[in-house]
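WARN no homologs supplied; continuing
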Amino acid sequence: MLHQYQRIWRYVWMDGKHTLPTKFDVPGGVPSRYYGYSIGHWDNDNTLVINTVGVSDMTWLDKAGHPHSVDAKIEERFTRPDHNHLQMVVNVDDPKVFTKPFVLSKNDYRWIPDQEAEEQMCVPSEMINYMKTISDPAFGVRNGDPTK
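OK structure emitted
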């Protein structure tokens, strides 16, 4: 899977031969990874389901900085209800950090003919400006302090 932002590649095994590891960062386990370990399968003809585990707890669940443990289970569901639309739902189950599973995000996308994917790269100076003008105000952060 290629992500538009930063041109990030994720491996999602779809062959049915791979299983997800169950132990991370412990003897006899595997190391956690920035993007974790993912397997996918089709749920009927129009929904791709991707299950991911072993995501390093040095990462966040979202841009607001919500934490997770290395034992979090993340499910992404990509549903194409018709030719022009795609729905994405991300569910998180992490009993070490949260009291119950929850929907992290739900997004609807519409196909626009002839639209090209924009190149999006992380440049620190641009990221600082983005945080000040868009992200911080959206999450109620004032003067770099979320408590004010």
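The mean pLDDT is 88.
OK
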